[in-house]
Amino acid sequence: MNGFRLQRLESLDSVGPRFLGLEFPRLALVVASLIFAAPLLAAETGKSDKIDELVSLHDLKTAVAIGDYYLRQRTLFAIRDRLAEIGRRQGLGPDWNPDDVHWKQAEAALFAPAAKQLDHGFSDLEWLSVEWAQLDDRDFSERDIDQLLAHFKTQYGRKQVMIVDHGVAVHVQSALTFTGKMLYDVPGLEAERDRMQHLYNQEDTDMRFNFQDSPEGQQFALSPVGKRYFVNAMLKVSGMISKRLDDTAAGIPQMVDSLSGRAEPAVQAFRRYHQG
What we know:
Mean pLDDT: 85
Structural class: mainly alpha
Number of domains: 2
Number of helices: 11
Shape: elongated
Helix content: over 70%
Radius of gyration: 30 Å
Strand content: under 5%
Order of helices and strands: HHHHHHHHHHH
Number of strands: 0
Distance between the termini: 88 Å
Largest sheet: none
Low-confidence stretches: 1-38
């Protein structure tokens, strides 16, 4: 055992000079590169953190409520189509319709898990935070981000953040309305529609201020950075939301099909009640 240890020590002694003589320059180069890269990494991290803070200043609750209402009506339509298909396939007859209590039970059994999936895929907006941050990183320098943060933390700057948020909501709703995608009188979704309308009206009231009282606000709105930020948010961010809504809506029929087994208990209860 002692001989083995001695041999190992001798081996290390013989390697030492080679390590110091040949490998040290490479090691020094690596260390130096890390030292010189550190400020660049810190600067990049600093900009990223500032962008995250900038995005977090926005509250797109109204745009989310509009999107939620649209996706839920598409989901409800898909569920009702699926239940009607089940009725035809199983020969449930004319009593199997949206006014029947068992139909309503089946509808609820499908709607709840579907809505949960929609919340995860759209409503939590985690996906938008990432895309918006990438947009800001491409289109604004760190100096621009500093200017935006400083202004948006002022009294009138916060109002202009609300204006941006409301502008996004207006663009999202307009895109859905003018293309005929969203209806406003869907039975069963009255609460969601009323919530959407309440948030829209409240935001419209809260964002208003006397522009003449804020020279800083006027200056910002007319500045190159201010104009670019408003355009990015109202057009590009609302476009991101509209695309997400279209993509999510396109997958709703398949999602409902995957959940259709949850309607079976209500279907069987209907059959027992009406057919014995």
